[in-house]
Amino acid sequence: MRPNFYLHLHPPTIPAAQARWRYTLGAGGTAVFLAFVLLVTGALEMFFYIPTPGEAALSVQMLTYTVPFGGLLRNLHFWAAQWLLVVSAVHLVRVVFTGAYAPPRRFNYLLGLALFVLVILFDFTGYILRWDQGIQWALVVGTNLVKSIPLLGEAFYQILVGGAQIGAATLIRFYAWHVFGLTLLGAGVLFWHIFRVRRDGGIAIPPPALRTQRERIFHFELVRREIAAMVWVGSALLLVSIFVPAPIAPAITEITAAASETHAPWFFLWVQQMLQWGDPFLWGVLAPLVVLLALALIPYALPQPAPDELGRWFPKSNRMAQVLLAALVGLVILLTLLAIGSKV
Length: 344
Ligand code: HEM
Ligand code: HEM
Prior knowledge:
- By secondary structure, the chain is mainly alpha-helical.
- The chain has 13 helices and two strands; from the N terminus they run H-E-H-H-H-H-H-H-H-H-E-H-H-H-H.
- Strands 1-2 form a two-stranded antiparallel sheet.
- Helix 4 packs across helix 5 (70-97) and helix 6 (106-129) runs antiparallel to helix 9 (168-199).
- It is globular and about 65 Å long.
């Protein structure tokens, strides 16, 4: 048979230890499934969405209330996007808490981290596409953060918003990034990431000489598990999308940061909280970059997980990375809760 990408990902047999739910949580596969749902629903939304300031929010309302199954389509895109962010964060946590980034998987860890950043950018640009009064604060404050970068800030700002101030060009830029630029980049990095999973020898488990479990499962069993996960996640997504609508507020009339709903989307509430402490460049740009850098350095700067401890949760040799990640996640959750608390 001719080699192909599907067979590359599904060899005739794999060690059973590489396909345990309790080990991988199925999070990587679920993320791939959600990305596919987003591609399909996003492409369908393009037939109805109008990327101009006067019509964007109205076209989203038209889609939601007048197009047959339009509301469901939008809700599927919205919920899949929120879940993808959560599921890729869970996948990241599992990779670090199991030490699965150990060589030769260090580079793939970085590809995964790039995907994580892309998902955040997708979620932010998508949120802006709504162009309703709920997004104004995040749009004004978020783009002003770029302006706060010393020396290059003004140039970056103009490239981002498409001129000296926010206007029609801004919406077109965010739209082009969302449906074209990020999609192209995201698809490229995603293929590379899952290609590398197998190229690096499949899911991390101890090398053959140190393995205690010798069982293997067939290709068919792996595919059966993948389909089972898709059916469960797909059904849950459908149920939530039928009953819980994605938010939409009245269209923007005039761009101002002092809108009634002055808060960031949920995944940036932690940054919003830090912005209260003063300097926007320090707290809004540098601090999140330091968190990203700390994550990127985990496989390079900390002691390596021991090969015989791979394939299980919380290996002893990997304690430092576990503590560092737990501290970062705890901090982001705490800041998010503080932001929610100060709003109530
Ligand atoms: C990882 C992939 C993606 C994520 C995380 C994502 C996220 C989002 C989010 C959060 C929204 C706002 C939802 C709302 O409030 O209605 C949105 C809107 C939109 N997205 Fe995506 N998206 C992704 C991929 C795509 C792709 C591939 C396309 C097109 C090919 C697309 C097209 C659209 C369109 C047209 C809208 C505006 C309609 C609307 O707001 O409902 N998206 N996206
Ligand atoms: C949209 C985001 C992502 C997708 C679709 C994705 C997809 C996948 C898939 C399908 C696998 C194999 C199955 C599994 O381990 O569950 C995998 C493994 C892996 N991923 Fe991701 N991933 C994403 C984000 C990330 C992130 C944020 C990281 C870490 C920073 C990461 C690092 C890794 C590593 C190191 C492996 C190999 C794990 C091992 O050998 O045990 N990925 N990814």
